[in-house]
Amino acid sequence: MAKVTDEIREEVRKVIYEFFAEECEVDVDEINDDSDIFTDLGGDSLMFLALIEIFTKKYGQEIDLKTIGKYSIQHPVETIGELIDMQLQIIEYGNKIIEVDA
Q1: Nearest to 80 by CA among 15, 4, 6, 5
Q2: pLDDT digits (tens, 9 = 90+) for 62-87
Q3: pTM assigned to the model
Q4: Is residue 2 a contact partner of residue 8, using CB atoms and an 8 Å limit?
Q5: Domains delineated in the chain
Q6: Cα separations (Å) of 78 from 5, 23, 29, 60?
Q7: 22-58 as b/e, with b when 16 or more CB fall inside 10 Å?
Q8: How do residues 22-36 score in pLDDT, each as one tens digit?
């Protein structure tokens, strides 16, 4: 778990934008927080897992995928902005994310 700073917030946004630009073969300038991951970008749920792995390694976290699954059922993600928010919650709360009402 890590305290989310403005620097971390911007870093997460940049990584997610660049990840989707590369994976979905779109220009990063075409992506914004309101971009729908599925309909606008053609993304899929496996991309979420790849991003979670990227960030857990970057921040030295170990998080149970079941916990993320439970959280995502309660807080579905469709847009880039929602994904950024979810990733920041994971960074800040780790496995305790399920106890947070975001």
Answers
A1: 15
A2: 888 898 888 888 889 999 999 999 99
A3: 0.90
A4: yes
A5: 6-96 (1.10.1200.10)
A6: 24, 16, 19, 26
A7: ebbeeeeeebeeebebeebbebeeebbeebbeebbee
A8: 999 999 999 999 999
